[in-house]
Sequence to fold (359 residues):
Amino acid sequence: MRLWSLVALLPLLLLLAAPPVAGQPRPPFAIGGHTVVPGTRADLDLAVPAGRSDGATRVPVTVFHGARPGPVLALTAGVHGFEFVPILAAQRLLARIDPATLSGTVLLVRIAHVEAFEQRVPYVNPFDRKNLNRVFPGQADGTQAERIAWAITTEVIRRSDLHVELHGGDGAEWMEAFAGPYGGPLAEAQYAQSRAMALAFGIRNVIKYEMKTQAQVDNGRSLNRQAVADGKPTVLVEIGQNGQRDEASIATLTSGLENLLKTLKMAPGTPAPPRADTRWFGDSAEASATTTGIFTPVATTGRAVKKGDLIGTVTNYAGKEIERIVSPVDGYIMYGLAGPPVRAGEAVVTIGIPAATPR
Ligand SMILES: [Zn+2]
Fold:
């Protein structure tokens, strides 16, 4: 750890070491060289300096530092810059959080990956072609995606107590919304909190991500698994599809985020209870293409499938069918590739395996 980040962390370390005494003023929140006083909001940029092979960028963050003490909640949108529903819900949330009545602190990463957003690039960084969501924790002197990751790891995740990562179907992905709390042997101590946070979104499909091995946490580490690695209760929320600005999904996500703040007792008001018809999944499987060509899905909506059911076909560029992809399991298809391009080895659907009992 570098000296400057130790210095920047000092107020938080002191805060954690010494619980606030009644009557003592609540300390300001320090982040990225900025200081935010209690009861106020600050819209700021985390600086990402230029690297050896690509330029400088920034991560726009809003800090709502509540007037009252409470947890630090990190909400991150736009790691994939073409997933517009989370980015637009984050914009809407700006007007819905009042730091004067907030208990705790919200770190809202409004657009984690500005360069991908502005250049309308799905999946990857436009300069290094790396998937930002596979390079955490990142590195201070790496390529641009790695430097962005490093800024978010050090300035946001490691300064927070709780994390919700917001994604959706990317440019060529259809999706039925789901919430994914992290648990399993390596995150079980955090699971009760993660589970409560996931259910606050009022999304019917809930999949428990079981972290059973360190390799699952480490290999191609995503932002949410960075939070798991740092011991935070963590939830992945996926909503919206095909790079669309779908109003119903934006409204669902925004109200889910507001209900999350009430559930965590960070915002005043009675939270809506978890929905009674939650569909629990305990694991997931994929069906993948083994050929490259033009993929035509049977359907682009969430649905139950049986093992052997046709998922879609691949034709070559001469119009000849070269593959019929079938489901490897019984389950419920939650999202998939809309196509038309598909490459050999790519997953074309992700299938939730229903859990026998609520998790
Ligand atoms: Zn994504």
Notes: The radius of gyration is 21 Å. The chain has a mean pLDDT of 94.
